Amino acid sequence: MSRPYKILVADRNPHVRRFLSRELSAAGFQVEAAASAKRLMEALGDEAGPDLLVVDPDLPDAESPALLAQIRERWPAVPVVIHTFFCELTEQPQNLAWTAACVEKNANSSDMLIREVRRLLKTPVSSSPT
Q1: What share of the chain is helix, strand, coil (3-state, %, to 5)?
Q2: Do 95 and 70 meet the contact criterion of CB atoms below 8 Å apart?
Q3: Which of 46, 54, 126, 130 is deepest in the core (most CB within 10 A)?
Q4: The pTM is what?
């Protein structure tokens, strides 16, 4: 039996981190959360790093473009879903080429986010990735 896909959620808001962790866990994913860019980078450096990142690049200890560039440089194979209020950040050419998806935060964003995660990890909608 294979392990569940591991998702790393990075968001400065503890309510958003808990909500997304709960929703993604309920969808069958293993979830880890990070409240800062420092913790995000530490988690990415773990031996069993994540299969996918969900990142709001507005973390308290990083500038968005620099953070995204650092992720791209150090972990180019890890898909990144940007979860933010405005997706214009991904419209910049240097971000568009490698960012897997952008989901804008709104009332239905958790459903859209889970759909994007499943699409990127190629997991079925009706079952967990076990």
Answers
A1: 40, 20, 40
A2: no
A3: 54
A4: 0.82
Full 3-state SS string of 74-123: HCCCCCEEEEECCHHHHHCHHHHCCCCEEEECCCCHHHHHHHHHHHHHCC
Contact at 8 Å (CB) between 11 and 56? yes
Place of tokens 């009706």: 126
DSSP single-letter state for residue 2? P
Q: CA–CA separation, 7 vs 32, rounded Å?
A: 6
89 touches 109 (CB < 8 A): no
Q: What is the dihedral of CA 110, 39, 76, 5, to 10 degrees?
A: -50
Which architecture, in CATH terms, is 6-121? 3-Layer(aba) Sandwich (3.40)
Q: Is the pLDDT of residue 8 over 90?
A: yes
Q: Which of 45, 47, 39 is CA-nearest to residue 55?
A: 39
Is the model's pLDDT at 127 over the cut of 70? no
